[in-house]
Design a protein that fits this description.
The chain has about 80 residues and is an alpha/beta fold. It has one domain. Helices cover about 25% and strands about 25% of the residues. The protein contains two helices and four strands. The chain has a four-stranded parallel sheet, with helices on one face. The protein is globular and about 40 Å long.
């Protein structure tokens, strides 16, 4: 089973990407910054949620180190606003 890592997955495009990947039999590691949002409603054994801010190197490292299998697909969907 392929493994995907999706940032910014708690709503919008990111959440839909998670749903589509699950339908295609991926194991999905989905990240969110503050609130799980729509991820809370996903009751699927192949989705794993990680609280992670892409601007924080320590949080990124911790999330990645918690995954024991190689990542086949990376989707950097998290948006960063400055100002």
């Amino acid at each position: 089973m392929p493994v995907a890592f999706v940032t910014g997955a708690n709503r919008g495009i990111g959440l839909e990407l998670v749903r589509q990947l699950l339908e295609r039999n991926y194991t999905v590691h989905a990240t969110y910054r503050k609130s799980m949002g729509g991820l809370e409603g996903l009751d699927h054994p192949n989705v794993h949620c990680h609280r992670m801010d892409v601007r924080n190197a320590t949080e990124v490292k911790t999330a990645l180190e918690s995954i024991s299998t190689p990542i086949d697909l990376l989707i950097n969907n998290a948006g960063i606003a400055d100002g």
